[in-house]
Amino acid sequence: MSSSQSAFLKPSGHGALAIDGKAVSTHVIEQVAAGAVKLAAKSVKPGLAVVLVGEDPASQVYVRSKGKAAEQCGFLSVQHTLPAMTSEADLIALVEKLNADPAIHGILVQLPLPAHINSTLVLETISPAKDVDGFHPVNAGLLAIGNMERALVPCTPAGSMILLREAAAALGRKLAGLDAVVVGRSNIVGKPMAQLLLAENCTVTIAHSRTADLAAAVGRADIVVAAVGRPEMVKGAWIKPGALVIDVGINRVPGEGFDAQGRPRTRLVGDVEYAAAAGRAAAITPVPGGVGPMTIAMLMQNTLTAATRAAG
Ligand code: GUN
Fold first, then answer.
1. 168: closest CA among 251, 281, 52, 253?
2. Is 133 in the pocket of ligand 1 (CB under 6 A)?
3. CA dist., res. 298 & res. 154, Å (int)
4. What is the pLDDT of residues 33-65, one digit of tens each?
5. Which CATH superfamily groups domain 154-293?
6. 2 C-alpha vs ligand 1 centroid, how far in Å?
7. How many A from CA of 135 to the centre of ligand 1?
8. What is the fold, at CATH topology level, of the domain defined by 42-147?
9. 42-147 with 154-293: one CATH topology?
């Protein structure tokens, strides 16, 4: 089957098809907005509260994008910005207030939190039903036992799974039975990604920094998900010809020359050596424009899901 069957896969220029995460995320946001319109008939408007502690510039950018997407979806969008010296007790009190607020269906506390605050404690205070990040142990547990009806699934793995299904469908393949390797074992991406692949009946390996022969583990895989946060660590030459490659990494590295203000240029690269991998894979996500936009789209999806469940 040809790539023309999906509007979301484009030639990468290296052989593989590039999976257009930006286009898929736009589609997801449109669907979520349509879902919010339906919910309005029941007089429910999904509400998302995003809590930012401190002034980390990257976090400020993320939080602004989340608020903008929530407005695009027709949600109530609330942002709480607290000073960096906010106490753990005050942050927990805010989360408890949001837990009790019927207008709020989703709560996201932007990470990282300042060092004096116990992040685990804060994340465990969020009501599991409003935990749109899917980081609460109750949601991690529901995912682990395969109860997707009740779980809220972490956004980046959920978005990666949609891209993978889109690529497989466009190539006329089934995911069931394929060998998948997830490189990285974080609670936010690696572990939930492995659970989702398992739920799709893939045979799943989780590789990590202590894996004895990473090249061999990647080389066996029909599906590679790279989520290690190390620039171009997964080499193109390791990729099995025809594999599907999902690159979760977003790493800023030195670029060439200087910008208009005389500052050294930088560029974004993934965890996969893109051009070389795209010379062997059947489909691959670019960086930027692959998994990144999907994370925010899935946050909107989770907020709609939480609001729908709350509405009965
Ligand atoms: N910081 C970077 N990514 C994320 C995310 O997905 N959720 C939260 N809460 N914080 C983040």
1. 281
2. yes
3. 8
4. 999 999 999 999 999 999 999 999 999 999 999
5. NAD(P)-binding Rossmann-like Domain (3.40.50.720)
6. 36
7. 10
8. Rossmann fold (3.40.50)
9. yes
